[in-house]
Amino acid sequence: MTRRHLLSAAAALALAAASVAPVAADESLAPEQTKVVLVLDASASMNEPDPSGVTKLEAAKTALIGALGSLPEDADVGLRVYGATVDGPGRTPAECADSQLVHPIEPLDEQGLTAAIQSFDAVGETPIAYSLLEAAKDLGPDGKRHIILVSDGEERCVPDPCVAIQDISDAGIGLQIDTVGFGVGDAAREQLKCIAEAGAGTYYDAADAGTLTTTLTTLSTRTARPFTVQGTPVEGTPTPEAAPLLEVGQYVDTSASSTQGTTTKYYRVPRTQPGSTIRVSMIGRLPTAKDGVNRGRWDWRLSTPDGIECSSRWALADDRQRLGVIATGTVVAVQLDPRAQQPTKSAEACAEAEELIYEVTRAKAKTAATTDVEIRVTEEAPAADAASLPDGVSSVPTSNADQLTSPASGTPVNVVGGASFNDALAVEPGTYVTDIVPGELVLFKTHVGWGQEAILAVDGPDPTFAPLQGLGPNDWMSVAGNVYAPDLSQMDSLEAQNAARYRVMEGGFDRQGSPDINQVPQVNFRNRWDSPRMYFSNSDGFAMAGDYYFAVGLGELRDEKLRGVPVPITFSIAVTGEVQGAPEYVEADAEPRPSPTDEPTPSSEPTPEPTEAATATEIPADPTDDGTDEPAAEAEPSGSALPLIGGALLVVGAVGAGVYAVMRRR
Q1: Pick the CATH number of 34-222 from 3.40.50.410, 3.40.50.300, 2.40.50.140, 3.30.420.270
Q2: With the CA atoms of 163, 167, 169 and 172 taken in that order, what torsion angle do they form, in degrees rounded to the nearest 10?
Q3: What spans are recorded as compositionally biased (Polar residues) (predicted)?
Q4: Which residue has the higher pLDDT, 48 or 608?
Q5: Distance between CA 161 and CA 144 in Å, rounded?
Q6: Which of 28, 152, 230, 639 is spaced 20 to 30 Å from 488 by Cα?
Q7: 529 three-state secondary structure
């Protein structure tokens, strides 16, 4: 089987959307196994009372047992405890190595795990670093590996767990560590947060047994989620001549910013069918930063081998509101518009080139950093009926939230969002509530068909949520909602508003400025030619039907009491209009066929069962952009997210084994 066919099979397995003969699945492309180790503190301090009246250990055991049902059924799960066997004078070698795997990592066995959880007492020390290093060994070198640590105190042995986990990360071992502080003080909170950051995870703060139960249920649900970037490893080159060939598929590489100047990488992208639309997308995710400016903007360019530009895009890496950043950009080489009387030479060249050059540049930054990035390449067959399809929309919404109304209705459904486009939770139109830790970003997706429109409204935080009652009148909360097209380009209709800001007023919240409501205009194939682009002229992704991604996020607050505390945020999604205007695609050496994208992409996730989380994203306007880098209108529209592979139209999704998945350690 050729490399191209392997990638085709992987794409078909992940997100097949076309009604064509199935592509045979290669067993080597099976998804990576999810392996989880639950690490529980059984040190003497866990005998102290929880606010509910029971001991912390009893509360933790109850919460952990209750969360077992939320773990993926096909996951391998083990349990490690520390401080449960050696009761000594304090910090002896024996106590600092007091950590046992009390249940092996094996297919989920709720009964066996429950018995293991109930089998020990709290007696000893807090050897966190040793336990985490042992847990990493327990998980081995392969699969999606996840550690969930619950602790009520800080490390009392050596080494420093932050340093130990950073050493694992620096060694290139892909491992995610989430930490939960259960009734902890400031020092322990800082240490557990540091561990989570070093382990590419999230810190959660649980003040009582109820919050601990909710948090562990959320984390159990998230263990099935893949890491942020996913695909076949590839290395771009400093010159186009030696650049690697990116066929249709999904890839991972790194993008480095430098304090010395710009950095550039090149890739080559082949076209397999004349007149097709080539689309190349890159996603880079950066964590929150206290001083998140001048981090090296991205510039993407797609051109012919002789230098004719087909399209270019840009995105900032700045994080002024401490929300974290998902920087996305999609460049295209589109089929010719059959209505164009005199197409430009650049439009013709980009539509006919058998190979294209993809260029990625990072600008000079205040601090040098390397970001793992995901690259997606799709190829869309030409539409045979492009001239007769409905006209594109003549204008696109910009900052019109004051004229829109949230579609919120009924009791919100609890959901847990994904951490990336690969694991975004599929939801139907409706009203939802998701718990978001300050500084967190999570993603959801909803299908929008040809001829339909959509609205995403972030309805805001729950003013009755008890921890928020302690905020003062000078505390502000930034809540963001963002929209991405099926080609992953950001297309917020609220260009000038990166997040809605809420201020504490008389026991409730007063929103400052416009509501956070984003609108997806009517989705038409001809939007790529007839319509303006959206979000600072960086997206015309609304020229395709498919899964639209909605991100929700919460900025970090000044109030330290809310660090790591999941805050309920309500959001609503509406999709309106009849499905109509689907194109007929031309298959290679075949008759035109109808577009298959009027049916939603199959999802491995059921529509919301209870749970949480969110992800938002920020690409503020570039104040230096004068529009001079924009290509001719005919040369750079987007198409549908339907790659052409061997005569079958497929949506490229996450590839499986033999493919690399990683989240860069922060």
Answers
A1: 3.40.50.410
A2: 170
A3: 395-409
A4: 48
A5: 22
A6: 28
A7: helix
Residue 648 in this model has a pLDDT that exceeds 50: no
Enter the tokens of residue 101.
């795997």
Q: Distance of CA 586 to CAs 322, 590, 652, Å?
A: 46, 7, 19
Residues in the chain: 666
| DSSP codes joined into one string, 303-317 | E-TTS-EEEEEEE--
Q: Name the pLDDT band for 510 (thresholds 50, 70, 90).
A: confident
Residues whose CB falls within 8 Å of the CB of residue 14, separated by 6 or more in sequence, listed in order = 652, 653, 654, 655, 656
- The mean pLDDT of the chain is 82
Query: Average pLDDT, stretch 493-517?
Result: 77
Residue 320 has pLDDT above 80, yes or no: no
Q: At what angle do helices 110-117 and 56-67 cross, to 10 degrees?
A: 180
Q: What percent helix, strand, coil does the chain show, rounded to 5?
A: 20, 35, 50
Instruction: Map out the domains of the chain as residue ranges.
Output: 3-29+230-662, 34-222
Residue partners of 269: CB distance under 8 A and separation at least 6: 245, 246, 247, 278, 280, 302, 355, 356, 357, 358, 377
1-36: b (≥16 Cβ within 10 Å) or e = eeeeebbbbbbbbbbbbbebeebeebeebebbebbb
Question: In this predicted structure, what is the pLDDT of residue 29?
Answer: 33
Pairing of strands 99-107, 249-257: unpaired
Residue 335 makes CB contacts below 8 A (sequence gap 6+) with 275, 276, 277, 351, 382, 383, 386, 639
pLDDT at 535 over 80: yes
pLDDT band for position 574 (cuts 50, 70, 90):
very high
Quote the CA–CA distance of 84 and 40 in Å, as a whole number: 10
Amino acid in the structure at residue 80: R
DSSP-based three-state secondary structure for 355: strand
